[in-house]
Fold this protein.
Amino acid sequence: MPIRDRDGSNIWQRRTSRQQWLSWFGWLLLVSLFIFCWRLMNENTLWMFVQDAPRQVIDITDRMTPPRWSYMERLWKPLWDTLNIATLGTLLGITMAVPVAFLAARNTTPSDRYVRPVAILVIVSSRSINSLIWALLLVSILGPGLLAGIIAIALRSIGFIGKLLYEAIEEIDHSQVEAVLATGASGSQVLDYAIVPQIMPAFAGISVFRWDINIRESTVLGLVGAGGIGLELSHSLNTLAWPQVSLIFIVILGTVVVSEWISARVRHAII
Amino acid sequence: MQWKKPPFIANQWLRYGLLVGVVGYLVLGLNSIEVNWIRLWDGLPRGWAFVSGFLTPDFLSRGGDIWEGIVESLTMTLTSTVIGVLISVPIGVGAARNLAPTPVYLVCRSVIALSRSFQEVIIAILFVAMVGFGPLAGFLTLAFATIGFLAKLLAEDIEDIDESQAEAIRATGAGWLQLINYGIQPQVMPRLIGLSLYRLDINFRESAVIGIVGAGGIGATLNTAIDRYEYSSAAAILIIIIGFVLLAEYLSGFIRKKVQ
């Protein structure tokens, strides 16, 4: 217990003076790094614009209210498209993620040395690149439309589902595998009877969770041309139709809340 | 009679109902995709150009832009995480049921809900409209998103603390601030540091995205490269992003292990 001697009486302290100096130095380092970054970042900032921000806020809120409710009738189709991008993208992602997960899990991979690193690399690259970036790439390759959105969502989902699923596979109870093996079962029978039943609840939970995230992400994919409600958002922003923008925001918010509720209910039912 | 595996969904009606529902949805959903096969065929060489771009990434010809974008992204990430953490600590304390009075609790919880419900990209659009193009808008976006994430998890953590330690501090006659400092903070600090590092990692990833709507960072550079069909530069940028994400993930994992 660190104790400081002051005027002959011992006073309790939380840290020794060495710890105190170290933490003080750490904070100093962080603050100076922050100031350095802040100055570097704002080299080109036009503070005139920034000073104007409060007026802009008032101006934009003024233009956004009231939302143009009559615009809703043109939003149903893009909304349906958005749901399709998220759902079909999730399904496509699942079909690609499952084999990758089995190849990446230590206990099911055919080769720890050669196949596993490749599967892990697939998972990592898919995870580090946001679906919006995938969409940007795919729109320039496949052309604008739902297909680019679906594939973008699928590619991003591989990493997420693959990672969580392979961790679930690695955590299974090995004695069940052994029991099935002891009956003389072949490799695929072991997979079917010993491994799959154990990971099924986790798998369903992960998929629904990812679907929920994908709904969120698919609402903005249209900004880069990949279809859905984001496309309408992009049109409305480009034409400065702020009452439409606010309606789209409300629709997106509603969709996200509903999908989150569904996903929470389903996961609750499974687990 | 032969033994059969029990089905995953026990209720027969639910099982077949779900199956019919899924098939019906797939028919409807797949029909709504309109694929322009001619455009797709035209795109194939471009797809190939992208794949070969990955094999021969071009770091140099847009080297200056890439460097600028990375610097913007990194500075944006650090400043927004620091400010976001600073703001989310009081909000997180206010959103903890066992510390805050009900009105404060409700206000803080609604701030969290507001910040969590919108995608970073949408927030970025609004901030770009307010303060103009550039990394400052990105900084504001990421800081705002950090508040929702961190304050929520911090509040949950504070609600889960060991109450007896707080009570022991209270019994010494400590004031509210002393209670926070000696009874609560030591318990939540390791997790707060871990979460901040995790958020630093997320903020870097997001900084690569919000540039697409004009909020600065490497995303803007990437967007330009793809718009110009410069796939080798785009591939180089993607490789750099993946590298940084891996590095950040590894480092934050390492530090978190040390702290906890």
